[in-house]
Design goal:
5-stranded mixed barrel; single chain; 17 helices; 24 strands; alpha+beta; 8-stranded mixed beta sheet
């Protein structure tokens, strides 16, 4: 018999009754019922019940061993009585009568229980991540991640894509976040940058003629943590294709995402095909460029109706209305709670009216609206008796942010929200440029390597703020999975686009020399995208926090509490790297 096990803990069934077996695993739980000791033994594959009788060496050994100790047991497979069968376990028809126990790794007292999975602070969980990963939910999430990545590789290869690796040590790139820098020992005063994305390299692969590339690519960005963004590093399904237009990219990604979410989504429906929503339409209707389409409500611009109305609080402001049907039975508390929700987001309040029979209006601002205002408003929101209408007023961005969140919250509270479904969409037609509110300068609004719609002529003849780009985002249930674009592959277009953003020829050549040189030697039209693996798994696992889908994430302040990173470096190492440390003065 094998030194440690003849079977795994999840393998044995009724057909194995009377077999002599050897198992190894962690002491998951222990119960003493009427003098008989019941122990759950757990390994990667499952849980099996052990029994030991009083007066035996096995009983004494199991009785004194701490939870999460690693043990090896020998024993006989016994059938459970019909009244003791556990249908929740694949091994629930049998148990192991233990004859021998060996302790392979004793466990100290636990800082928190692995079973049951009681609440514990995230910092404590991350400090002892090796214990946290033993919990059933976390183990399931990490195995889901592994299965999803394996399926991605299979699906991409079947579609004719080749998995190619790109460098980790490279030069800085303008991806919109701070780089992690690595000092060079051989080249004093110079630094490598960890890639924010393999953007330039995957384009160079297309120029080199590889046609269809993909990679489960590690990306590194020195940016703040969010519930759907892990600080430090993340992984993405990096994709690039030659001789394609936007719809060609969409066709591939829709197939892969639909297949993935149907395979791993636990029976939740995947809506297909994915609708295409222009960026400006998304901001107007949903208040967001990553709309949650499970909410069956839309915003309506009613600024014109209030421009000359008697409600002076809205005069001269951008006003967005949200119509919520079937609210006749909603109590006043429904309106007050949505108002409180809006105020938590920064609103001063949330005005509202209710449409009654004959389109008569009631509510706090109804008295300020004339008969003409009422008629125009009811028509604009397609209102019917029993519809409540909420209003937000202010500048466009502020109203979009607040009313976009109110839209989803109202849909959930009023029963206009779809559960158990994955609703994807494409956001298209992003502006190529935007104006920096602080400096007034024109900047790239998205990926600087994108092809502008209209090409060089658009760059030379249009107002930069009116130029759209062949850029797109894929969104699922309000979570942005990825940005992508049809790339610019023409040197003159690149020079002109960067000139509008304030770059000189010399700066472009200095920062993107490799890419520019490649463009001069026959670059094909190409495009791509890079859906985030962490976010895909987060959605499939139905986890609100992305760190629950990563084996060893940094915490919210970008620290590895288990390994102690970032850490200080001694003076000898700094000298070798030609570095000295200048710490900021202590805060007062």
């Amino acid at each position: 018999m094998h030194r440690y096990r003849s079977h795994t803990c999840g393998e044995l069934r009724a057909a194995d009754v009377d077999a002599r077996v050897r198992l190894s695993g962690w002491l998951h739980n222990r119960r003493d019922l009427g003098g008989i000791l019941f122990v759950d033994l757990r390994d990667h594959y499952g849980v099996v019940q052990l029994i030991a009788h009083p007066g035996t060496s096995a009983y004494e050994a199991l009785d004194k061993q701490t939870k999460e100790s690693v043990i090896r047991v020998d024993g006989l497979v016994r059938a459970r009585g019909a009244e003791n069968v556990n249908p929740e376990l694949p091994t629930g028809e049998i148990e192991i009568e233990v004859t021998e126990v060996e302790v392979l790794g004793a466990a100290d007292p636990l800082p928190f229980p692995v079973f049951p999975e009681d609440g514990v602070s995230e910092d404590k969980r991350l400090t002892h991540r090796f214990l946290d990963l033993r919990r059933q939910r976390m183990h399931r999430n990490i195995m889901l991640r592994s299965a999803v990545i394996a399926a991605i590789r299979e699906k991409m290869t079947a579609l004719g894509f080749n998995e190619l690796a790109t460098p980790i040590l490279s030069a800085t790139s303008p991806e919109g976040a701070r780089d992690f820098l690595v000092p060079s020992r051989l080249h004093a005063g110079k630094f490598y940058a960890l890639p924010q994305a393999p953007q330039q390299f995957k384009q160079l692969l297309m120029i080199a003629g590889f046609d269809r590339y993909f990679q489960i690519a590690p990306c590194f960005r020195d940016e703040a943590s969010r519930a759907d963004r892990s600080p430090g590093e993340f992984y993405q399904l990096d994709v690039e294709m030659s001789f394609v237009e936007q719809e060609d990219v969409f066709e591939v990604v829709e197939k892969v995402m639909t297949d993935l979410f149907e395979e791993f989504g636990g029976g939740r429906h995947v809506t297909s095909p994915f609708p295409r929503i222009p960026f400006r339409e998304a901001m107007l209707k949903y208040g967001s460029d990553k709309p949650d389409l499970r909410a069956k409500l839309e915003l309506v611009d009613v600024s014109g109706i209030f421009a000359d109305s008697g409600f002076k609080a809205f005069a001269g402001k951008h006003v967005r209305a949200l119509a919520v049907p079937d609210t006749a039975d909603q109590p006043r508390r429904f309106f007050d709670q949505l108002g409180e929700f809006a105020m938590e987001l920064g609103a001063k309040g949330l005005a509202w009216i209710r449409i009654g029979e004959d389109n008569a209006l009631t509510g706090p601002i109804a008295k300020f609206l004339t008969e003409a205002d009422t008629k125009a408003l009811v028509e604009a929101v397609h209102g019917k008796p029993g519809t409540a209408v909420f209003f937000g007023a202010g500048d466009f961005d502020e109203v979009s942010k607040i009313m976009g969140a109110v839209r989803v919250e109202a849909a959930k509270r009023a029963g206009h929200f779809e559960e158990d479904v994955f609703r994807f969409c494409w956001i298209v037609d992003f502006p190529m440029f935007e104006r920096n509110e602080d400096t007034g300068q024109i900047e790239f609004s998205h990926n600087p390597f994108s092809m502008p719609q209209g090409g060089l002529e658009a760059l030379q003849t249009k107002d930069p703020l009116d130029i759209l780009a062949w850029q797109y985002d894929i969104v699922c249930n309000g979570v942005e999975l990825s940005s992508g674009a049809i790339r610019n592959h023409e040197p003159e277009v690149m020079y002109e686009a960067f000139a509008i953003a304030g770059y000189t020829h010399e700066q472009v050549e200095q920062e993107f020399g490799g890419m520019l040189r490649a463009f001069h030697f026959g670059a094909p039209p190409h495009g791509g995208i890079a859906p985030g693996v962490d976010r895909i798994v987060m959605l499939l696992a139905d986890e609100p926090n992305i760190r629950e889908t990563i084996a060893f994430p940094l915490n919210q302040t970008a620290q590895d509490l288990l390994m102690g990173a970032p850490s200080e470096v001694d003076e000898a190492r700094l000298k070798e790297l030609h570095l000295s440390i200048r710490k900021p003065p202590p805060s007062k």
